[in-house]
Amino acid sequence: MAVAKKTIQLKPGGRVWINTGEGGLVGKGRIELLEKIEELGSIRQAALSMEMSYRHAWQLIDEMNQHAHMPLVISNRGGKGGGHATVTDKGKELIKLFNSFSNSFQKFIDKQSEKFKL
Amino acid sequence: MAVAKKTIQLKPGGRVWINTGEGGLVGKGRIELLEKIEELGSIRQAALSMEMSYRHAWQLIDEMNQHAHMPLVISNRGGKGGGHATVTDKGKELIKLFNSFSNSFQKFIDKQSEKFKL
Question: Mutual orientation of helices B28-40 and B54-68 as an angle, nearest 10°?
């Protein structure tokens, strides 16, 4: 049959996250937020650069800190210069861990792709 | 500092799917539907067993067939015995491919878990 000879172009896909306990999930978006805070030293600037509201960024950070049961970001609201934020060592470790996990996942997907022809 | 000595219980997670072209995504749920149709020989029975409406099951199948540009399920509505459905060879290959992919992904996650302590 002609139909049976056709092949479908198949591509494996997926996404990964890190569960930090009690249902706390950290994925690509939250890690990017942490990275931006580390880079810019400010939650407000980080939020701006991601076209995210300050309020939303704050909520995400607050949730992450609570789920992790330790601060991943420490922030001084106000003060001279107007609120500086720092990613803690644990926060930096989480960024590193996620990026390594995410890279391994990409390699896994690339390897799977070779098998994908129907 | 006491805080720095705490460890978070981290767990890697994620999900995978197969892209069948033109934005068609087949994940765990659709594969389960195909498996149930193969097992029960009926879209209606498959939908019932998954607590899904017949209409919704039909839409999923129709979408999958269209995205794949070939039938994955062939269905005779009505007829004696009331509508028999068959998963085509291509459909069976897709089930097998997804399950193998999904198993490999689970192994990947299990292996990653060893690295996950913050």
Answer: 110
The structure tokens 């896909």 sit at A13
Inter-chain residue contact B13 with A16, CB threshold 8 Å: yes
B90 touches chain A (CB under 8 A): yes
- Among B86, B91, B79, CA closest to B40: B86
CA B22 – CA B20 distance, rounded (Å): 7
Partners of A70 on chain B (C-beta within 8 Å) are 3, 6, 8
CB contact under 8 A, B10 and A97: yes
* Per-residue tokens: A102: 């995410």
Residuewise pLDDT in 10s, chain A (118 residues) = 444 556 667 899 999 999 987 778 899 999 999 999 999 999 999 999 999 999 999 999 999 999 888 899 998 866 555 579 999 999 999 999 999 999 999 999 999 988 776 5
Q: By the CB < 8 Å criterion, does B68 face chain A?
A: yes
* Interface residue B3 vs chain A (CB under 8 A): yes
pLDDT at position B118 is: 59
DSSP state of A52: -
A43: exposed, middle or buried (Cβ count in 10 Å: 0-12, 13-18, 19+): buried
